[in-house]
């Protein structure tokens, strides 16, 4: 069983996600039958406790009264438990948490849809159509992944300002700078999808071509439906990244009514002390909750996706 | 299991959709105080202000007052928004072309913003409203001007003074008298302050930990950059446009700051005061807990004491019953007292640092005239007195009413009024790189306080060289830009 | 060489499919980069049009002590966080690869923190690092040291700031661990069995079989980490003083100074000059990594 899997690995220099998953599944099954390593268990148990502790502390703090947060010795289990903190966070007089959530959802939705579709389109071009200069362009695209955001952020700011001044469309002061670039494809997603498309046998598209289908039709009717797992990975990753993005909103969002959750969380911090940590932790829990739930629902897809990015080497 | 995850996923998507459709919109329905909606032909003014908590509520009341009086009349509605790091955000928003109509900044960046061309000059609008310099206490007006033009109007001004704990003084009366000091009076000179501080220091005999410090220059340390004022000096000479950090007064000032670290011990001091910075707005504020006997603070302290440690202001009777106390007994209701912060120069009295919160109109605001209506309103005598009363601060105007003195919750307001207008009151230097300069000088002060091996003169010289260079660059850039136009 | 009819048809089709990316690349990558280069030679405050000043920004940059300081901070942090991160993530991946039961659970727990938004991580750890005894970390130290120590002012004392941030970064190694895991599971079993037959012990197997086989993954993670640690911004921005970088600016990272120059001091030209220095730094370090990879990275099946 493993022999075949390893062979697949060796013959495909860039193993497809399917192969990777097969390897993982096969080897896991085999090894599970071996003797348990209690030392490893212990080590992992200790380490995982350390990893989980901050989360527990966060939840614990979010359920305390403000004066309990500065008590000594600190208790993990608050008494009394104050779940109304969450209600306070959601209905806070000065900080409109639901508004920030809505803003984040808007930006995330627009970004995910835009990037998934456009990246798929471009990835098709890079994988299924042979044309002169394709390799060069692909290399250029890969290299753009290495460009640090600070290099472009100031100029982008200036470009958007110029566009706002000289066209009838407002850019700065809206969400556009955050989601617009995504509609033109993102290098990372293009790469991921291209790798996946390359595992789809050419015979399928060839057959369709002989039947007289245009490339666009092949793309829409054959490739896309087959790529649902990869598209899911792209959508998931993009959603996570947008939900977690901070520097982008920090630079491009000016009006407080447009703030996303990341920026909004900062509003609970006070500059002169007196930060209400219980509310801040409550808001933080609410912010990371969707991400965590999504992770548990889509674990396999997620981890597969991460693994693939590393596998290309 | 799969069904469960599908259901949860569907639920998440549904709630996202619900949020999108039914969720709050960026432009809320604005309402007057009585609940009536704001009609669409009324100009909406976005007002970004730094305050949160009580101070925000109080300013909101003023905003409501405006909306219901002048606002209704002239069809203007001001919307107050609490913004953290409002200075940075306003600058970026102005650079982005979408600034608020009114912004509440600190005095420290007023000149910088004006020099960067980020603000609308207010001279014409001020003249139209009959706002002239003679109506104001001189230091405040001067700090709002740069290159001969007016750039902002003060919302709430203040002056720094010595706040000291009378209880501590009286409790230590024997020891103070033994040191030749009067426990019933505040220190008259800076050297006296040092002596008082030394007597009032308390240490745990076993561990050597500090339990109480008579005075800590860094608590709160908000005036640390201009300590030279109390030494008769200056950090910037406006006539020659040069920094004067290496003047003997500055060196003396920094050595004075350092002397406290030397006296208390670096490690002990850090351990004692490490967290003080973030505790200002909490009941653990060191002045309120009695961990520090004397601080250089502003008039808002009265407010914070009422909020966080009212017992300090209610030694005999609660505040509401205070008016029934005979006049002579009233001072005894307060465990704390205020006096001008003493200077190191004999004969130099009434020295203070006048600072303020200021309202500006960023460049590119679409509603300048309407925005200025609000600024002018805040500077009307009755409104000023109402606002400053609520903040326990002194007024920015030269004249004030007796009512104001009587009803201001700050028991020492009259002293603050006189101090703020004193001939030896100094303000923020109108140098365009002041935020950078203040940060650098604060860093230098920290170095003076904590890095005892670095000579103070060297530290100041380096800072001065850096700042001079930055200022020259800035002025060069300014000249270049003017020439390029 | 002129294109044949078929080739030019393909080219047209290819470019058509690529058009979103081509447009986006031109507008949101190429143009900003070129503009950024131009701005770095200008005095530009965004409130005024840019004024060309030649290489003055660069000259000033190389004489700016804060530039070197922020570079130093970033470098020090990288030297702490990078090796620590790689060792810890590799170690965890090796542990997780033992084939024990419930390893998916462990793997999920370790992976979870890497999903948390940087803002949330920063605020949570800011809370954990509270300087007095009520902070979680200090509480543990106080208890474990039997009250002989009260912990430390983690984010206040200058010499503790960077180590605290580096330690915190270990919480988010999950992503790297998963990548290593995938790489480890790709190693063919026969190699391990052959090594065992030859009598190699655990450590030798690790050094001579496992590590070389996953060297491409190590290389990938190394490059990603270099690029990542040089751009650290969000976490120190939120956790440290508003004056920038905490006491003594001990946590004033390079990108923080860049951001301040651009949006606090409105010196866009100067900020762009810094950005280009950063870009060249990243490129040269990556090139160095690639060049050195020939010595130690072994690609399967090549």
Q: Percent of residues of chain A in beta strands?
A: under 5%
Question: Based on CA inertia axes, which overall geometry of chain B fits?
Answer: globular
List unreliable stretches of 5+ residues of chain A. Answer: 1-20
Q: Count of helical segments of chain B?
A: 19
Please identify, by name, the CATH architecture of the largest domain in chain A: Orthogonal Bundle
The assigned structural class of chain B equals alpha/beta
Instruction: Please state the second-level CATH architecture of the largest domain in chain B.
Output: 3-Layer(aba) Sandwich
What is the largest interface, and how many residues per chain?
Answer: A-C, 109 and 104 residues
What's the level 1 CATH class of the largest domain in chain B?
Alpha Beta
**Straight-line distance between termini of chain A:** 25 Å
- Kindly state the number of beta strands of chain A: 0
How would you characterize the overall build of this protein?
The complex is a heterotrimer of chains A (313), B (485) and C (302). Chain A folds into two domains: 89 residues, no CATH class; 215 residues, Orthogonal Bundle (MetI-like fold), CATH 1.10.3720. Helix content of chain A is 71%, strand content 0%. Chain A is built from 17 helices and no strands. Chain A is globular, with a radius of gyration of 24 Å. In chain B, strands 1, 2, 3, 6, 14 and 15 form a six-stranded mixed beta sheet that branches. Chain B folds into two domains: 183 residues, D-Maltodextrin-Binding Protein, domain 2 (3-Layer(aba) Sandwich); 236 residues, Periplasmic binding protein-like II (D-Maltodextrin-Binding Protein, domain 2), CATH 3.40.190.10. With 485 residues, chain B is of the alpha/beta class. Chain C is mainly alpha-helical and 302 residues long. In chain C, strands 1-2 form a two-stranded antiparallel ribbon. The chains are: A mainly alpha (313), B alpha/beta (485), C mainly alpha (302). Chains in contact: A-B, A-C, B-C. At the A-C interface, helix 1, helix 2, helix 3, helix 6 and helix 7 of A face helix 1, helix 3, helix 4, helix 5 and helix 6 of C.
Keywords:
heterotrimer; A: mainly alpha; MetI-like fold; 2 domains; 17 helices; 71% helix; globular; B: 485 residues; D-Maltodextrin-Binding Protein, domain 2; 6-stranded mixed β-sheet; 19 helices; 15 strands
